[in-house]
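BACKBONE GEOMETRY TOKENS:
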Amino acid sequence: MAGTSLYGVTDAVSLAQQTHRFESGYLDWLLGDETQKQQRSPMHALAQSAHQVNVLLIQGELDKVVVPEQAHRLARQLEKSGGRAEVLIFDNESHGMQNPQNRMTMIKQELAFYQTLSP
């Protein structure tokens, strides 16, 4: 099982403490209470999974919506559970890739990641 996270939330429980004030204001409405946040978080679902999971995590270093630490924490958890994680942090990018060169690099890196998983 493999996937790519493009500046995605990996731990909804800690997101409220890590994101900027605007985003944190509607997280309960969007994600629910603490129990629902935990159920909806890849970080916590990983503990329940019997599958080896391989994920490429892509973040902007300046992201204030989903801070890069979210990607690093999930990568550590994936590796502990026997999966594989690659974290790709783009300099001078925030939430979403704005620089066309970075977008191209992102696509090439994603292709390379999946090629390493092919038999």
In short: The chain is about 50% helix and 15% strand. Helices lie at 12-18, 21-24, 27-31, 34-39, 42-48, 68-80, 100-117.
